[in-house]
Amino acid sequence: MTRPAYPNLAWSGGEPGAVRVLGINPWITDFAAFNLWSRPVGLLACLSMVRDAGASIALMDCLDPTWEGVRWPRPGRYGTGHYPKQELEPPKALAFTGRRYSRYGLDRDMVREALAQLDPAPDAVMVSSVMTYWYPGAINALDLARELWPDAVRILGGPYATLCADHAQRHARPDLLVRGSLETPENWAQLWAALGRIAPPLPERAGLNLALDLYNDPGYAPVLGSRGCPFSCDYCASRALYPGFTQSGPGPILALMEAEQARGVRDFAFYDDALLVAPDRWLWPVLDAVSDRWPQVRLHTPNAMHVRRLTPDACGRLKRGGLTTVRLGLETTDFDLRHDVKLTRREWEDGARNLVDAGFDLADIGVYILFGLPGQDLARVEEAVRHVRGFGFRPHLAHYTPIPGSPMFEAARQASPYPIAEEPLFQNNSIWPCVPGGFDWDQAARWKALLQGLPAPGHGTAAD
Questions:
Q1: Residues 135, 172: contact at Cβ < 8 Å?
Q2: Inter-axis angle of helices 250-262 and 283-293, nearest 10
Q3: Smallest Cα–Cα separation from 409: which of 400, 441, 218?
Q4: Which ranges form a coiled coil (predicted)?
Q5: Which helix (DSSP H) or strand (DSSP E) does residue 18 occupy?
Q6: Beta carbons of 207 and 146 less than 8 angstroms apart
Q7: N or C: which end of the chain has fewer CB within 10 A?
Q8: What is the C-alpha separation between 107 and 413, in angstroms, rounded?
Q9: C-alpha angle 325/331/335, rounded to 5°?
Q10: How far is CA 118 from the centre of its chain?
Q11: Domains 20-194 and 218-452 share a fold
Q12: What DSSP string describes 331-399?
């Protein structure tokens, strides 16, 4: 068999005659994209699931930098960085922006050539879809699969397929659309029926095991200790994607980390939505083990941690366990007007102080502040930015994405001048879909200066 051009592309698992399932993590199509320890965790969980049930699996990750001979932009800290990109004509719906629109990831022709060498051919192609407005990349991957393997079953899953199911069925035209988690009995049975097989028993830890071994030279790795979230934030669709909240025990997570660490991985990113909920169940034992066994490991929390749970003990454990990149969810400093009860002013100030007292570097602490909510007073956002800078932390604007299935989506639909319910491209947070007037370069420059504490363009200082 000819060695594929993409070093990760090879069949794994399964006895002779087993069904072969290829997973494709498609390109990002957007105005901007940045690799913040990105891995298609949902797709990797599905691939692990079907392999544990007897299938043979393979992966094509169009966002993976390990392709030999591909020039990748200069890496950032701890494995993060920019993607290579190819500028495209923007979709007609977004042409009004006048901004550059690109396909991020590996060259499409190279991807096609590598996939064409995959031997034997797949029986099924499973395509993920993360952001709803990235769906052009998913459609492109499905079209490529249709071209190369007309008889293969084309499967589309993920947030786009779940939250915009009617749109996905019309435009992507998959053979099977998976709404929600693959491990639900209905979805599991439908998958195997589409493959012409009787559904085997659902494997243990379905949805929590990740097929990380499909990456030959991983560089970094995700850690998934739980699925779902016990909270119900108005702007989030977590409950629509996964209505429950399931946590792992520490053993399987440590086994995964040990295997990845033995392959040279030093940077691990937590993908949990609620990392600090019930930490005794798995997080504290994992951190204790990391501290004892692998002091060289660095841990990162690209998803915001809940500040109210940052007690002195918790911060000490996180620091000793190797947490390096800290991201907090402040959201707003309108504590008296918050629509949730997750955080009070006292809890925020105590949590921030506890992090500093535990010895975390201020440069490694970032704080997410929501920007662009329906009807939001942006003057309050400025106050929050200055408040965060006053602590010495780095403020980051979390640009609001109107997500179908979230409690706030109807308010967003009424506030936005775009048909966000009919066309997912208008859900792109880069166009500021719920900010009056939409995206504006002058305002973007002003906000950038404010975040950095620099003089605002055309003004005195950012604090004036």
A1: yes
A2: 30
A3: 400
A4: none
A5: none
A6: no
A7: C
A8: 36
A9: 130
A10: 27
A11: no
A12: E-S-GGG-SSSS--HHHHHHHHHHHHHTT--GGGEEEEEEE--TT--HHHHHHHHHHHHHTTPEEEEEE
What pLDDT is attached to residue 5?
A: 58
Domain boundaries, the chain: 20-194, 218-452
pLDDT at 464: 32
In a 3-state reduction of DSSP, which class is residue 169?
helix
Please name the residue that has the structure tokens 């629109």.
Answer: 101
Contacts of 232 (CB under 8 A, 6+ apart): 239, 407
Q: Which of 183, 196, 132, 178 is nearest to 406 (CA)?
A: 132
Q: Which residues of the chain have pLDDT under 50?
A: 1-4, 460-464
pLDDT computed for residue 322 by the predictor? 96
CATH class assigned to 218-452: alpha beta
Whether pTM > 0.85 for this model: the answer is yes
Q: In terms of CATH architecture, what is 20-194?
A: 3-Layer(aba) Sandwich (3.40)
* Beta strands at 101-104 and 28-30: parallel, antiparallel or unpaired: antiparallel
The predicted pLDDT at position 256 comes to: 95
Give kind and range of the element (H or E) at residue 313.
helix 312-320
pLDDT given at position 366: 95
Amino acid identity, position 37: W
CA dihedral over 256, 261, 263, 265, signed as positive or negative: positive
According to DSSP, residue 2 is labeled P
pLDDT tens per residue across span 136-161: 999 999 999 999 999 999 999 999 99
